[in-house]
Amino acid sequence: MDRIELLQSMVEKDKSNIQAWYMLGEELLQQENLREALYAFSMALAENDYTMEQNVIAYLSKVFSSLEGQSRNTDEENAYNLASVRHVEDDDQPNPDEVEKTVELTVIHGKKTDNISSLKQYQPKTVTFQDVGGLDSLKKTINMKIIKPFMDPGLFTKFRKKTGGGILLFGPPGCGKTFIAKATAGEIGANFFPVHISDILDPFFGQSERNLHDVFKTARANRPSVLFFDEVDTLGYSRSKANSDIMRPLIDSMLTEMESIDTGTDNLLIIGATNMPWDVDSAFKRPGRFDKLVFVPPPDMEARQTIFQLKLKEKPLSSDISLEILATKTEYYSGADIENVIELATENVLTEIMETNQERLIGMEDLLYAIEETIPSTLEWLQTIKNYIKYSNQTGLYKEVAKYINKVLL
Amino acid sequence: MCEEQYANDRKMIEHYFSMDRYEDARPIIENLLLSDPQDPETLYLMGVVYLSREQYTEARELVQEALRNGYNPEYAFFFIGLTYQEQKMYAEAEDAYLRSLEINPNQANVNAAYGYLMLLTGHDEKAIKLLDEAIRIDPDDSAVNDYVYRFYLAKNDGSNQAQYLQRTMEIARNEQEKLINIAVYHLVKEDTKTAEEYLRQLYLLDPTNKHVLEVLEEINRTNHMLFLPNRLIDKIGGPAVFYIGFIILVLVLTWADINSIAIVILALYLITAGYTWLAPLLYRLFVKGKI
Ligand SMILES: Nc1ncnc2c1ncn2[C@@H]1O[C@H](COP(=O)(O)OP(=O)(O)OP(=O)(O)O)[C@@H](O)[C@H]1O
Ligand SMILES: [Mg+2]
């Protein structure tokens, strides 16, 4: 099997394998199959993955600028491929052209050792609470706990209430933690810097800590900003469970960095997210660190309607679609589950069309059938946290969840 | 793929493995295989992922291929032996352990695994000899000590149980390991109340663990039910059978010092090991006990 075939079989098996889509795009582009390459890249972007978005932009601008370069017969940087662009280390005098742009794009994710850059050139599309359907009480909580103290630190100083510390969003997978973090940044008009452990971790001794430090430095240089640590349990994994001490220094650096922030004057907000709050080391949850836990529940009725509406936008729909009914029938479905329902319905209709040679639109029946064929993925998580609360003899950190569970599950 | 990228990927894999998140590492390993399908190290790592899924045949085939491509045969044969042992193919397992020990007899983990195999197959004396040898080679290896500890649990040898429990407490790598061993100790001692408290703490560290939850719930349900007298356990098939499947996967820990992949396996083993035995324990003690 050649590489393209292999990649094609991978994406067939798992449409959400954006890495594979990305590599397929690269391969196809090298074969100058522009049409299919762009399709693959757009599939790579389907998951709204920020890192991926950067990779695609960097790669494409690289390729296109080098095409341009050929005709202009210019500098040697055109020879960079993606890998070298992402890892440029001592690019002392960046040229003020496209090459510089691609280097800057990678500032957070590129494991670069040089320090601060401006992100002005690349602003991800802003989302705000308007884009987040429903979840009113969550929005209110975020407003009180995060946005107000951030926008008006003076009030809090007057009452001698500390405003430092980060927020830890937790909840079942696929329910919009990342989305809401982004929207929170949008609400306060801050730059949004998503960070994942893979952007930080480095095999060279001490380099991970330096990478982390640079992330904070970059966020500070681009204030106001929100530094978002996705899957924060992989960065601050519980010491009671870790099989080795190798992460210790990085965890310590993270704690130090966090404590050095004064939200009031720094205009820098730290948000973490996790599906597994029990795996986050307790040191991370102490005052001055991620000391505000915010539960992101499965989308409520209104949220589900919004998600259906959003995800159905591009599909050929018959006129009998009722978002309200769809939302009613999908209690406990996560955003990702809903996406899955729509995918399944689309697939079924396509199969039918291919079998009968008669084209038709996606109807309500198809969606309802797909709902019946699937189960919400959040139930397992909710059951787990329910047991957790039961055996911990106290609700403590998980008061909100306990309330939610009592309300909806009993 | 450039070397820097390769090193980064390896680091991420190691990190996921150290958290027992093998499925999270899988896409990275798949990508590495894509650019070099023959790389022995990568094949081996994929083998570990399959092992964590309890797909032993596939796991073994991957490591056999790694071996053909030059992977360190000491480790490879050990791994292969473990997969056979899990599938109860004891003769093949012994064969693999022997081949590993032939290359290097000074491997604490292989000696201990082999010793445990002997316990399973009813060769107690040989088992003791091999376990002693393992301890002699590396007295501070927590996995080796776990094996010995569980040997004495199976043999119902109270004073040695206490001594090795103490030892495992001293050298455990983390809280979770300690809690597993101390909970078992009290379970076997029929001190359900104390066991329950440790199991509860263990569960809070990993609420996704179904085995621990099962035991906890069972304890709650039967509340203070007396544990089976040893007589009955003997009837069921003797202490050795009683503990079948309960550690098996424990070893490999010592590799941590040898190379980094090690961390990988050791994590997998200790944890799954600790948990796999809880299921049969539960089954034997509660389900069969009621019949
Ligand atoms: N309330 C909502 N309004 C609009 N869209 C939503 C809402 N909740 C979730 N979504 C959609 O669901 C998708 C999944 O959300 P997101 O990736 O933020 O979840 P997550 O909780 O971060 O998941 P994971 O745990 O897998 O990281 C998003 O792309 C978003 O479009
Ligand atoms: Mg997310």
User: What proportion strand of chain A?
Assistant: 5-15%
Structural class of chain B: mainly alpha
Q: Write out the CATH superfamily name of the largest domain in chain A.
A: P-loop containing nucleotide triphosphate hydrolases
Instruction: Please state the average pLDDT score of chain A.
Output: 79
Helix run count of chain B: 18
Average pLDDT of chain B works out at 75
* Beginning-to-end CA distance, first to last residue of chain A: 53 Å
Helix content of chain B: over 70%
Q: How many strands appear in the DSSP assignment of chain B?
A: 0
* Major beta sheet summary of chain B: none
Task: Give a quick summary of the entry.
Chain A: Keywords: ATP-binding, Coiled coil, Nucleotide-binding, TPR repeat. The complex is a heterodimer of chains A (410) and B (291). Chain A is α/β, with parallel strands linked by helices and 410 residues long.
How does this structure look, described?
The complex is a heterodimer of chains A (410) and B (291). Chain A is of the alpha/beta class and 410 residues long. Chain A has 4 domains: 3-70, Serine Threonine Protein Phosphatase 5, Tetratricopeptide repeat, CATH 1.25.40; 129-295, P-loop containing nucleotide triphosphate hydrolases (Rossmann fold, 3-Layer(aba) Sandwich), CATH 3.40.50; 301-375, Helicase, Ruva Protein, domain 3, CATH 1.10.8; 379-408, no CATH class. Chain A is built from 19 helices and 5 strands. In chain A, strands 2-3-4-1-5 form a 5-stranded parallel beta sheet, sandwiched between helices. In chain A, α1 packs antiparallel against α2, α11 (207-221) packs parallel to α12 and α16 (335-356) crosses α17 (364-373). In chain B, α1 packs parallel to α17 (261-276), α5 runs antiparallel to α6 and α11 runs parallel beside α17. With 291 residues, chain B is mainly alpha-helical. Chain B has helices at 3-18, 22-35, 40-52, 56-68, 73-86, 90-103, 108-120, 124-137, 142-154, 158-171, 175-188, 192-205, 210-222, 230-236, 238-242, 255-258, 261-276, 278-290. Classes of the chains: A alpha/beta (410), B mainly alpha (291). At the A-B interface, α1 and α18 of A face α1, α2, α12 and α17 of B.
